[in-house]
Amino acid sequence: MRCALSQGIDKIEVPDKRNGWTPLRWAVEFGRSEAVPLLLEAGADMHAKGVKDRKTPLLAAATQGDTDTLEMMFERGASVYAEDLYRALPLQANMEDGSNEVVGFLLHRGGADVEEQQGDKGYTPLHVAAGHGNVDFMRLFLECGAKIDVQDERWQRPFAYCSIA
């Protein structure tokens, strides 16, 4: 890859026809962490969204649990507030089976806000963690100052979702 990029390959932003993913997104999705810095140095757009799912490479890295890639992207100014097709933010997209390490990283290094409400639904990370029954994340968000009385679009507070999980 280094050889191809050094020869002036300027098609690093061309998305594939199937998913609309750029090479950076493919590298992140498939754990090719050695390719990520090369693509970023060559000018790959870390904010490019997949055509179908609207996920950025940063969202993909958060979902994959790849803190090394997250660090590289934050060093280059990536936004922790990039939404996917479902208006999920990196912090919220990591709830179902994410790692405490990634969530902690997004909060402390990435500057994610525990009160940030998702898209037009109004879910906070605490709503999402409660809905997934993830007590560890709920505890972490409360320790980081999450409020328990924030209501979503249906006037539900986070702990109302505990009965759903």
Topology diagram in text:
Layout: H1 2-6, H2 23-29, H3 35-41, H4 57-64, H5 67-75, H6 90-93, H7 100-108, H8 125-131, H9 135-143
Helix pairs in contact: 2-3, 2-4, 8-9
* Strands, count: 0
Largest sheet, described in full?
none
Mean pLDDT: 83
Rounded to an integer, what's the Rg over CA atoms? 17 Å
Structure class: mainly alpha
- State the fourth-level CATH superfamily of the domain at 1-80: Ankyrin repeat-containing domain
Global geometry = elongated
SSE topology string? HHHHHHHHH
- What is the correct CATH architecture of the domain at 1-80? Alpha Horseshoe
CATH topology of the domain at 1-80: Serine Threonine Protein Phosphatase 5, Tetratricopeptide repeat
What is the percent of helical residues? 25-40%
Distance between the termini: 44 Å
Low-pLDDT segments: none
Q: What is the C-level CATH assignment of the domain at 1-80?
A: Mainly Alpha
**Beta strand %:** under 5%
Q: How many helices does DSSP assign?
A: 9
Structure overview:
With 165 residues, the protein is an all-alpha fold. It has a domain of 80 residues: Ankyrin repeat-containing domain (Serine Threonine Protein Phosphatase 5, Tetratricopeptide repeat, Alpha Horseshoe). It is 39% helix and 0% strand. It is built from nine helices and no strands. The chain starts with a helix and ends in a 22-residue tail after the last helix. The model has no long low-confidence stretch (mean pLDDT 83).
